[in-house]
Amino acid sequence: GESVGLHLPTLSVQEGDNSIINCAYSNSASDYFIWYKQESGKGPQFIIDIRSNMDKRQGQRVTVLLNKTVKHLSLQIAATQPGDSAVYFCAENSAGTYKYIFGTGTRLKVLA
Amino acid sequence: DAGITQSPRHKVTETGTPVTLRCHQTENHRYMYWYRQDPGHGLRLIHYSYGVKDTDKGEVSDGYSVSRSKTEDFLLTLESATSSQTSVYFCAISDVDGTDTQYFGPGTRLTVL
User: Which of A26, B55, B72, B89 fits a 20 to 30 Å CA distance from A100?
Assistant: First the structure.
């Protein structure tokens, strides 16, 4: 079964709609953030990252927004596809440390 | 995918037995990490390595040891497996340091009976 959690918050979206997944991070000193995607039975896969000197970064169909004032990170997925179904979680890191703090994740379900 | 393999991919063992998990990378990255993933928790760091023979403890290191004799290999040993160590174990690598992106292996599902 799924290893990342039995009671994760779930976001259900219709195929083709946009998805927004949120993350509240914990350390105000964190200056580097990553979004990962994890499919069932697989390892986390890097999606996009952002450093604290930016508030927005875009990739292919994905955008990450960073609001340092309220310690909030979001991942926007445009035109969500069935292959986007997975657990998404954020990670934060502070400069000079090897320690990442990982969120528990949100399960994204794409409805056909 | 980053060139990271983990072996075995699945293992069932009994309480009290030693278990070694292997992580192998072909990226020549300096930093390697072992995490465990459990329901209700984010990934938790067990041990990490910042070079050959250079390792340090993470937040959940009790009952685990590691070794890194070559850049490409990082071994995680459960000295005497307990049921609380039933988990999915992930290896990760990064190139520069802790502020660089970490890439993960496919994981090892370990069950301790």
Answer: B72
